[in-house]
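Chapter summary example.
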Amino acid sequence: MVSANIAGFLHDSALRHPDAPCIVAGDRRYSWAHVDRDVSAYGAGLLARGLHPGDRVAMLLGNTYEFVVAYYAAARAGLVAVPLNPAYTSAEVAVLLADSGARVLLVQPATRTVGEESAAALPGCEVISVVGSEWSRIGRSGEGVVLPDDTTPETLALLLFTAGTSGRPKGAMLTHGALRANIEMLLSLSDPPAVVDADIVLVVLPMFHVYGLNTVLGLAMAVGATCVLVDRFDPVESLQVIASEGVTTVAGAPGMYQAWCATPGLREAMSTVRVLSSGGSPLPARVYTEFSALTGLEIFEGYGMTETAPVVATTLVSGAPKAGSVGRPLPGLEIRLVDESGVEVDDGDPGEVWVRGPSVFLGYWPEAAGGPDAEGWFRSGDVAYADEDGDLHVVDRRREVILVNGFNVYPREIELVIDDLDGVAEAAVVGVPDDTTGEAVSALVVARAGHDLTPEQIAAHCATRLARFKCPTTIRVVDALPHSATGKVAKGRLRDVYGDTGYGT
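The structure predicted for these 505 residues follows.
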């Protein structure tokens, strides 16, 4: 019987080729059998420590071997993994720990201080470093223990926090079945295949994000490909890794491809690469053209979201990249493009993307609110149209979300932080086009009467409260903001008033 557990993919690959390389992390190399044993031991060890199936295990970890083990150990033990961005501040982490009710927070040396500060006021949340004797003891306590596999497709595996336009974080509830379904749909593609067992896969996209976690790591685990972990993207160092390890499969974000175009030795370093893909935010046509001219390689592009585990559509389905298009829906997923009344739009007209299929999430933690409707349709908030070939083109987002290197940044969260600064009367945050990151965060701030505010003061305040990628890259202190008749900031008019500062939704 095939296991419903997402960690079953790893176990099956370990049975097929136990001595083949599974994980390469710097100068550390681990076979499939070694990884599989560690996953079982640490999963059992976490249960022996007093955790129970369904308990949440938060992870403030980078792209390390310990992340891989912790994630799959939690899954195999029936625990719920809660990956968090290691760049978050203690204030941000504290909110997510409280909301998830995490029993354990796993940290590494670089995140230990933030982890301890964030958990200090949360009784019942234990901070454990994955580097040191305590973590080793957990693994030893579970050695030789056989974990029962009573996972069903409906069993919750993962909480990935995103946020609404209110800025309040929401945990997307992804089941084992949803995660496995998205992987299996990608594996059904064969011209070209997304990944095969002989591939060497670059894992530089952060694994706390669903793109890196399920589409890159999860897909490789399912077929038995070798994963080369890179904890931080640097264009020069990443090309050196690609060349030295003979990487054949690369998944990236637009900013990575932009940076590589400006890096000497690109063509030579990419000589072993078979498939390149991009996601997270739209890939500019000029970047695609320049990269292809420099390397002779094409970049496949996809579209998805956390709530769909994540891939909805990709040019891998049609088998050929198309500039500006994210391709066609994965086999097994249905989409509708509908107007504001819920009526399907005419061919070629833009409409909101509705998605239905086995990889769609349950809803948001803990009551599953905001999930699919009674007929299984999830309303994405994204606007797209289908061209004459049936390929999707994403043109807008109804939500105010800003995509910075593929990561969601929510204006309201930043506005609340700025509003908390003494002397601020009002703030508006919008996204602006950026050649490197896809979009960048721009803030317009009105000072209270009698107060002198500078962009430098506002930037320094944001830096203490927000992760770096959320901090505004441009800040303007202005006399006033445009408002609607109801008193709400009219973000759609910001471009008219302040030029090419940003755009509304």
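To summarize the output: Residues 57 and 81 are 5 Å apart (CA to CA).
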